[in-house]
Recover the amino acids of this structure.
């Protein structure tokens, strides 16, 4: 049986996609930096908002974004109900001893997209935590790629469990890794 190869986009299409990704990232980062900046939101800042509203306020700069975004040079770019997109730039600082991007960087980017996709489905007064993360590495990644995107999509969100899947791709559509998660969904303690 012969595998069908998917057509690769032309170099100019890849360059256009990468330029679009960078432009979108610049807009989102500028808005987040000009607003609350990096930090951890206080419970009263989250209170009374759905998960989707919380993440939209983060993107708008009204709530702080997580400091790990600076450390690992990636961040939230888009959210919608049941969907979250993260974008990152693998750097020299993220390399393993063999010169490839460390698998933990892949996993953290995918875990963030998965978790935030679930977060968009959480109603007021509810939270979640990752119970299981499965990552499948398809090919190595180097800083030469420039940018990659992880798009997480919710498959199921119930009262106690949520599941989601994500793909990590380059601007030319190359798949570098894919992942799944199971999250526990629970009531948050009341804000005092």
């Amino acid at each position: 049986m012969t595998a069908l190869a998917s057509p690769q986009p032309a170099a100019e299409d890849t360059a256009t996609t990468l330029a679009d990704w960078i432009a979108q990232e610049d807009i989102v980062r500028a808005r987040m930096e000009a607003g609350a900046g990096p930090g951890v939101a206080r419970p009263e800042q989250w209170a009374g908002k759905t998960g989707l509203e919380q993440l939209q306020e983060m993107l708008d700069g009204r709530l702080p974004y997580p400091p790990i975004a600076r450390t690992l040079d990636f961040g939230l770019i888009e959210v919608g109900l049941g969907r979250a997109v993260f974008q990152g730039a693998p750097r020299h600082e993220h390399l393993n001893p063999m010169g490839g991007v460390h698998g933990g960087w892949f996993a953290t980017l995918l875990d963030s997209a998965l978790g935030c996709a679930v977060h968009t489905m959480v109603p007021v007064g509810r939270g979640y935590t990752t119970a299981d993360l499965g990552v499948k590495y398809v090919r190595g990644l180097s800083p030469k790629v420039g940018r990659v995107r992880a798009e997480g999509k919710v498959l199921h969100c119930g009262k106690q469990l949520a599941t989601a899947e994500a793909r990590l791709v380059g601007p030319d559509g190359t798949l570098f890794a894919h992942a799944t998660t199971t999250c526990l969904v629970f009531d948050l303690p009341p804000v005092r």
Summary: The CA atoms of residues 69 and 75 lie 5 Å apart. The radius of gyration is 17 Å. The longest helix spans residues 11-34.
